[in-house]
């Protein structure tokens, strides 16, 4: 339900959580295999549902806009007022977990102290 609520395919959710599509299929099968707590936290985050609802079925399903704005991640996002920086953040958040490290290392490399070449 969380995946469908977010309008994601199994492949989309798998990519955002950092697992194989078959893992999502197993979570949704009958009888279902439960994701790890870490994966469940990531599922709740990327689909916009409450962790408690996802884990137990209790409480409201969707995270309200007020809750989103009160979160630390949302507060950090509000500080970003540069369009390029926001694009970079969105790309990082949308990347598969395995690719995030490479993206961060690339950004760090490119932003590191620049050495002057003999021609400079």
Short description:
The chain is mostly helical and 120 residues long.
End-to-end span in angstroms? Answer: 58 Å
Strand residue content: under 5%
Mean pLDDT: 80
Poorly predicted ranges (pLDDT <50, ≥5 residues)? none
Q: Tell me the major beta sheet.
A: none
Structural class label: mainly alpha
Coarse morphology = globular
Compressed to H and E, one letter per element, the order equals HHHHHHHHH
What's the number of helices?
9
CATH architecture label name of the largest domain: Orthogonal Bundle
Gyration radius, rounded: 18 Å
CATH topology of the largest domain: 434 Repressor (Amino-terminal Domain)
CATH superfamily of the largest domain: lambda repressor-like DNA-binding domains
Amount of helix? 55-70%
| Number of beta strands | 0
How many separate domains? 2
Features:
single chain; 120 residues; mainly alpha; 434 Repressor (Amino-terminal Domain); 9 helices; globular
């Amino acid at each position: 339900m969380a995946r469908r609520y977010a309008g994601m395919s199994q492949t989309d959710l798998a990519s955002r959580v950092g697992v194989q599509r078959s893992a999502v299929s197993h979570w949704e099968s009958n009888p279902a295999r439960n994701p790890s707590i870490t994966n469940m936290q990531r599922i709740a985050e990327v689909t916009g549902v409450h962790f408690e609802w996802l884990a137990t079925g209790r409480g409201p399903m969707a995270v309200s806009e007020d809750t989103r704005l009160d979160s630390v991640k949302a507060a950090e996002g509000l500080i970003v007022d540069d369009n390029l920086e926001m694009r970079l953040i969105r790309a990082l958040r949308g990347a598969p977990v395995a690719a995030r490290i490479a993206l961060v290392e690339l950004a760090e490399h490119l932003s590191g102290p620049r050495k002057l070449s003999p021609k400079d």
